[in-house]
Amino acid sequence: EKGSYDHYMLKEIHEQPVALRQTLHGRIDGDDVSLEDFPPGSFEGVDSVQFVACGTSYHAGMYGEWLLSKDGVEANTFIASEYAASPAPVDEDTLVIGVTQSGETADTLEALESARQRGARTLALTNVIGSTAARTCDDALFIRAGPEIGVAATKTFSSQVATLVLLAERLVRDLTGSPTDDHAARLDALESLPEHVEVVTNDTQAADVSQRCLGDNGHFFIGRGNAYSVALEGALKFKEITYGHAEGFAAGELKHGPLALVTPETPIFAVGTGHYQNRLESNVNEIQTRGAPVIAIAPRTASGLVDTADEFLPVPATHPDLVAILANVQLQLIAYHAANEMERSIDKPRNLAKSVTVE
Ligand code: M6R
């Protein structure tokens, strides 16, 4: 039931603190993690990780790849439908993780099957107990976000990424013999993530900023590192429910082509996390020289970015590896308020289904 909310999407955006508490419940154990079926040593023998997924779940997979790579674990992310067309090499030491909220996405199931047939170990990272992915993979890890009704994935993205932070801790320890860099501080910050998300869902500034997004021009989203996956996700959410043109770019790629699209009419959302900050600021300067309004989404502590931007949507300062999760919530609110203003069919956008069970 939607209760007092006009749309399931808005309800589910606001449910994120509760969903994340469920995701994390009992899984942080001091400066280590405690993951049901995956005690220490569960992944011994694995030498690399591949994520296969579609849409929003693909963006969560990219975030997972970034988390693993920075701590020395070989990881790659594949669009599931492309994985079937050009399968990456695997062997029995490859762990292939299907990131799928529903556990029923045909392209993802096909990619997992292709990996399984070639001898890889498979793991379903899913929201649905008893789903096809959970039943057919060697292992399953549940994100525990609760049911998501809106076609636009919101709370499941946050819970997928939070689960990936936990899983990365186990994988990095098992594969490298050491904990993740800065693990104690990051797990501490993860414990506070639900309350930090709540600060964002209680912030009303996205509704005003979304007024900039009602025109027919393009809307661009940029970030680096883990914020790149969130830039892509912000653009996907925006196009999916507003029907407006939106694209996400790796901030450093702008000058290799997309900068030609930038005009005073194209709002640019810049996601700042604290990682790669100076470079992001240079990208913002390049954009402003072309007259485009820049909306920074970052903690106030990213003062260089915050001071330069034309508008600013704040997120709480936390561990830089987690800031992009918070920024993503602001982008969900931007997409929601713009779509609402345009009277779009927010919970059931045209041409889309919640679960895509055809290839
Ligand atoms: O159920 P899945 O996570 O496998 O779904 C994958 C995509 O179809 C899904 O994330 C889609 O991109 C979202 N509706 C976007 O909001």
TrEMBL record:
<dbReference type="GO" id="GO:0006047">
    <property type="term" value="P:UDP-N-acetylglucosamine metabolic process"/>
</dbReference>
<keyword id="KW-0963">Cytoplasm</keyword>
<dbReference type="GO" id="GO:0006487">
    <property type="term" value="P:protein N-linked glycosylation"/>
</dbReference>
<feature type="domain" description="SIS">
    <location>
        <begin position="39"/>
        <end position="177"/>
    </location>
</feature>
<feature type="active site" description="For Fru-6P isomerization activity">
    <location>
        <position position="354"/>
    </location>
</feature>
<dbReference type="GO" id="GO:0097367">
    <property type="term" value="F:carbohydrate derivative binding"/>
</dbReference>
<keyword id="KW-0677">Repeat</keyword>
<dbReference type="GO" id="GO:0006002">
    <property type="term" value="P:fructose 6-phosphate metabolic process"/>
</dbReference>
<protein>
    <recommendedName>
        <fullName>Glutamine--fructose-6-phosphate aminotransferase [isomerizing]</fullName>
        <ecNumber>2.6.1.16</ecNumber>
    </recommendedName>
</protein>
<keyword id="KW-0315">Glutamine amidotransferase</keyword>
<feature type="domain" description="SIS">
    <location>
        <begin position="209"/>
        <end position="349"/>
    </location>
</feature>
<comment type="subunit">
    <text>Homodimer.</text>
</comment>
<dbReference type="GO" id="GO:0005975">
    <property type="term" value="P:carbohydrate metabolic process"/>
</dbReference>
<dbReference type="GO" id="GO:0004360">
    <property type="term" value="F:glutamine-fructose-6-phosphate transaminase (isomerizing) activity"/>
</dbReference>
<comment type="function">
    <text>Catalyzes the first step in hexosamine metabolism, converting fructose-6P into glucosamine-6P using glutamine as a nitrogen source.</text>
</comment>
<dbReference type="GO" id="GO:0005737">
    <property type="term" value="C:cytoplasm"/>
</dbReference>
<keyword id="KW-0808">Transferase</keyword>
<keyword id="KW-0032">Aminotransferase</keyword>
